[in-house]
Every structure is written in C-alpha cells, then in structure tokens.
Design a protein that fits this description.
- The relative contact order is 0.20.
- About 25% of the residues lie in helices and about 35% in strands.
- It has a domain of about 130 residues: OB fold (Dihydrolipoamide Acetyltransferase, E2P) (Beta Barrel), CATH 2.40.50.
- The strands form 2 sheets. The protein has a 5-stranded mixed beta barrel. A two-stranded antiparallel sheet has the order 4-5.
- It is of the alpha+beta class.
- The protein is flat, with a radius of gyration of 25 Å.
- It contains 4 helices and 8 strands, in the order E-E-E-E-E-E-H-E-E-H-H-H.
- InterPro entries: NA-bd_OB-fold (IPR012340), Primosome_PriB/ssb (IPR000424).
- This is Single-stranded DNA-binding protein.
- One of its GO terms (molecular function) is single-stranded DNA binding.
- Pfam families: SSB (PF00436).
C-alpha cells in the first residue's frame, strides 16, 4: 500500500550501490538509499553544523532505472525529483512498518560537489545522420574561418593577433570564493544497520 504525498526534490548522497530488481532476470527497476543531511551556520561559532541525516528509499523505473544502474555509485552527490510516498508493510513479527519512498522522475549528479559528463543515446538513424551533417557543416565553417585568419607569407604572425589570456581560473580558487557547507557524505555507512534493524522489504 502506498500513500501519495506530492512531488519533491531532494539532494543528498547515495548510501550504497544501486540494486536492480525485476522478473526472470529482466530489469524492471532500480533502487538505492539516499541520505540527505541539512547543514546550517552556527551563529555563535560561525561554523557549519550538520543536522541528523534523513534516509529515503529511491526507486526508478524503465530507462531511468537502466541509466541509474550505469551512472550512480555509493557516495555520489545527487539531486532527485519525484513523487514522495509512504510504503507500509507487515514485518515477519506481524508488526506494521512504514518507510519513505521517492519514486523518481529525474535523477542527476549534484554539480556543487564535482563535475559530470552526459553521454546521450542515439534514438534513430535519422537523428544520427542529422547530427553528422551538423558536425560536418561546423567543421567546414571552422576550416573556412581558419583560412581567413591565416597570416600572409612573410608577415609577422603575431602582429595584431596576440592571443588573449583565456586560461580559466583553477577550480580550487572558484570553490574558495563560494562559501559552501561541509561535505555531508560521512553518514552513508549508517544506512545498512538502520535498514537491517527496521526489517525493510528488499525493494
């Protein structure tokens, strides 16, 4: 039994490697534990402090489940959007239990903690051909531009073409400028004992 609560967005860290489930070896869905820890600035000490971690069970289905299985790992910082439900079941002792489950519609890495790379799927040959044509056109335009800017024989190649310093600042200095809360993934080890003690169902 599931009681629908509403659509929410939660940030946190993956507590363990995602687990797939399905019938007869076929992938039907994927699930993982998400630990979300709220941080706040202590007005007295001017230091970041962590509140108790809230644990959610995240479930994904269909193509999203397949992508989660190939993309997420324990400790990853993620952003999850979906429907928040309360799952209820009876334990072996007959006691009624419940847990929060987030049925995900979108999942991605939280870029506040690192960088990521997206590998898009090719949905059709037509789209692939269209993309190849666009790439060829771009290459031709780049070649034409390079030819137009090429120096004439005997001319000073640096005259009026001194390259500007376009080197981006190091990531470390960029991170230092933004005051961020501390890394809250320290609690990812807690979920195993918590789940075992509550007798939660496997999926």
């Amino acid at each position: 039994m599931a009681i629908q609560q509403g659509t929410v967005t939660v940030t946190g860290f993956v507590g363990a490697e995602p687990t797939v489930f399905g019938k007869e070896g076929m992938l039907s869905g994927c699930t993982f534990r998400l630990g979300s820890t709220r941080s706040y600035m202590d007005a007295t000490t001017r230091e970041w402090r962590n509140m108790p971690t809230t644990w959610l069970t995240v479930k994904a289905f269909r193509q999203l489940a397949s992508n989660v299985r190939m993309s997420l790992h324990k400790g990853d910082a993620v952003i999850v959007t979906g429907l928040l439900n309360t799952e209820q079941w009876n334990a072996q002792s007959g006691e009624s239990r419940s847990r929060l489950v987030l049925e995900a519609s979108s999942i991605g890495h939280d870029l506040n903690y690192g960088v990521s790379e997206l590998k898009r799927f090719r949905k059709s040959v037509a789209q692939s051909d269209s993309a190849q044509t666009a790439t060829n056109n771009q290459a031709a335009a780049t070649t034409a531009m390079a030819s137009a800017n090429a120096p004439t024989p005997g001319a000073d190649p640096w005259q009026n073409n001194t390259p500007a310093n376009t080197t981006p600042p190091p990531l470390e200095s960029m991170a230092a400028e933004a005051e961020m809360p501390p890394d809250t993934r320290d609690g990812v080890e807690e979920f195993a004992s918590e789940a075992s003690a509550s007798g939660e169902p496997p999926f």
